[in-house]
Write a structure and sequence with these properties.
- By secondary structure, the chain is α/β, with parallel strands linked by helices.
- It has a domain of 129 residues: Aspartate Aminotransferase, domain 1.
- Helix content is 35%, strand content 13%.
- It is built from 13 helices and 15 strands.
- It has an eight-stranded mixed sheet with strand order 1-9-8-5-4-2-3-14, with helices on both faces.
Length: 450
């Protein structure tokens, strides 16, 4: 249920306000048709991006609708978005934040809460993750004075090598925080069994995998917490934005606290005394009755999403199933059309028992190929085809982690191979078959030239 529109002023009835809004919306529709009409694709001239936002007049109308309220922080659209996205994912709680990176920070920080008793993470505790990934999956571990333990991934699925989990275990291991790389689920059966056996927390970084399915269940619903990004490159967008997901009511309140300044109060903006005892608490060394809205239980932040961003998300939610299906179709097209270049390129493989909602199409240039990854990437970019590396490669080679405290399992040889040999192509819904055909033909032509 969404909140009602702000009440009309005495001199401007609700009916008059609605009529004016409809006039604005009509103009927005006309503007959309003028500004964002489709353009002809010209091979070699029109850029083929790896990602991008796909939207229509609905997103613009809801964005303008929200702006007309001038409710600039979290409001009615955010409430609707949280409720609907939680239901779509199959979890009980969705807490919107201002980015996927913030979602990762808040999710891991929540596990340091004193409210978790002896289950809380404390400085020096270890969190298992992978070396081949994106920095903001790892950075919250360092930011909370914890110790990341890096394991390798498998090729060509790019998912966590579960055979290294027992090797990574120590008496300080308390959690796992792992991403579903490019939308391909990691082995959740093995990971959750390992976590249950050793009483560990699990955070799924689901930012690249909205809509991915493992053994018939959506990723982002297995772990104690999961994170999502709504950056324009992802499966749906609010511009900047993200979310933390959980079905644990206690974790939900802790996450909300870290997101909302660290305060103990859970009242939404503009609402007071939800608990019914706003001036009846005795917490910390504060005097009895100190205003609960100004009582703080965590070292938190202000990471809320604005209502205008959430309005875009509400419109995007209606398109999400179509977006996911289109990503799968684009992935399958590339996979089938590139079968004849496997002498020099390794095609990706889905994790067993999974149905990925692919974020991208990774390609591995074989070590004995007559060209390098950089040769091929440079050629594609010259032909106006966008590419991306697999994020940070082996993250331990990145300058920001030099001299920090962490443990490594094995030699991370596959992470190094990813750093040297892997890149990925786009599969996002804005790519047409004509564009993908051009991509395939360009790759074939390049490979045959050698």
């Amino acid at each position: 249920m969404t909140q009602s529109l702000p009440k009309a002023t005495p001199n401007n009835s609700y009916e008059e306000e609605q009529s004016l809004r409809e006039q604005v919306f009509s103009s927005v529709k006309d503007y959309y048709q003028f500004k964002f009409k489709s353009r002809t694709f010209i091979p070699g001239q029109t850029y083929v991006p790896v990602s991008g936002k796909v939207f229509d007049q609905d997103e613009l109308i809801k964005l303008v609708d929200s702006s007309l309220d001038f409710w600039l922080t979290t409001g009615r659209y955010a409430l609707e978005f949280e409720e609907r996205f939680a239901a779509w994912m199959g979890v009980k709680h969705c807490l919107l934040v201002n980015s996927g990176s913030s979602a990762n920070l808040v999710a891991l920080s929540a596990l340091t809460s004193p409210k978790l008793g002896n289950k809380r993470l404390v400085p020096g505790d270890e969190v298992i993750s992978v070396a081949a990934g994106f920095p903001t999956t790892i950075n919250p571990i360092f930011q909370n004075q914890l110790v990341p333990v890096f394991v390798d991934v498998k090729l060509p699925s790019y998912d966590l090598d579960v055979e290294q989990l027992e090797l990574a275990l120590s008496d300080r291991t308390r959690a796992l925080m792992v991403a579903h790389t490019l939308g391909n689920p990691f082995n959740l059966e093995a990971v959750m069994a390992f976590a249950e056996k050793h009483d560990l927390w699990v955070i799924e970084d689901n930012c690249d995998a909205v809509g991915s399915v493992y053994q018939g269940q959506k990723t982002g619903t297995f772990g104690h917490l999961a994170t999502v990004s709504f950056y324009p490159a992802h499966h749906m967008t609010t511009g900047e934005g993200g979310a933390v997901l959980t079905s644990d009511a206690r974790l939900s309140k802790i996450v909300e606290s870290f997101r909302d300044w660290g305060r103990d109060c859970w009242c939404p903006p503009g609402v007071d005394n939800t608990c019914g005892k706003r001036y009846g608490w005795q917490l910390g060394d504060l005097p009895f009755g100190y205003d609960h809205k100004y009582t703080y239980s965590h070292v938190g932040y202000n990471l809320k999403m604005t209502d205008m961003q959430a309005a875009v998300g509400v419109a995007q939610l209606d398109k999400l199933p179509e977006f996911i299906q289109k990503r799968r179709e684009n992935f399958e097209f590339l996979y089938q059309q590139l079968q004849d270049v496997q002498d020099v390129l390794v095609l990706p493989e889905a994790t067993p028992n999974s149905e990925p909602s692919w974020f991208g199409f990774p390609l591995y240039v074989k070590e004995d190929a007559p060209f390098s990854r950089n040769d091929l990437v440079k050629h594609l970019e010259e032909k106006r085809i966008g590419t991306r590396l697999l994020f940070g490669g082996n993250l331990l080679k990145q300058p920001l982690y030099q001299g920090l405290n962490y443990r490594v399992i094995g030699d991370l040889s596959n992470a190094d191979r990813i750093m040297e040999n892997v890149f990925w192509l786009g599969v996002y819904p804005g790519l047409t078959e004509e564009m993908l055909t051009y991509v395939v033909e360009t790759i074939r032509e390049f490979c045959r030239s050698y």
